[in-house]
User: Fold this.
Amino acid sequence: MDQIKIGRFIAERRKGCGLTQMQLAEQMNVSDRAVSKWETGKAMPDSSIMLELCAVLGITVNDLLCGEVVTMENYNKQLEERLVELVKEKEASDRRLLRIEIVAGIMSVVPLIAAIVIANVVPMEEWLASLIVGVCLIPLLVATPFMIRIEQTAGYYECAKCGHKYIPKYASVLMAMHSGRTRYMKCPACGKRSWQKKRIGKDKE
Ligand SMILES: [Zn+2]
Assistant:
């Protein structure tokens, strides 16, 4: 325990609270000499008044004993690092989802195209050709709602008018005209319609 550092810290916090040594002494029911001794590192505040002193100075006992507000700083730093990590994880998972969507799209469209080609090239009864195309249409029908859901929730759409980034409603994404991943939608912030690009990060790009 660094008494000099703790003393300086007490003085700094006292001044921060707009108190003179005398005023703090009165509040704590001790002599102003006692306060002076704490602040010069000659004595520690008695444990019986430590909690009250910390309350007056707006710090925790832990802060007092460390001679600085360390706990909150570290806490905030850790929290910030965790938040940055979470954002990175979301961006990575969004990118992954968008890749999955491409694969799902290809896997559901290729059999359908193959079926259409076969039905037209190979001589067969008309009902059989329709059946083959119909069956090969199923994967696309099944995959489409999932693909639209990914389009809706992975990353953000950016309004071309005001730059607002947001996650639109499923119905807006479903109904919107689109070119690739860019969709013509109404911005909830400015209310204008524009071709809105898909963005992964909310604050960069
Ligand atoms: Zn806008």
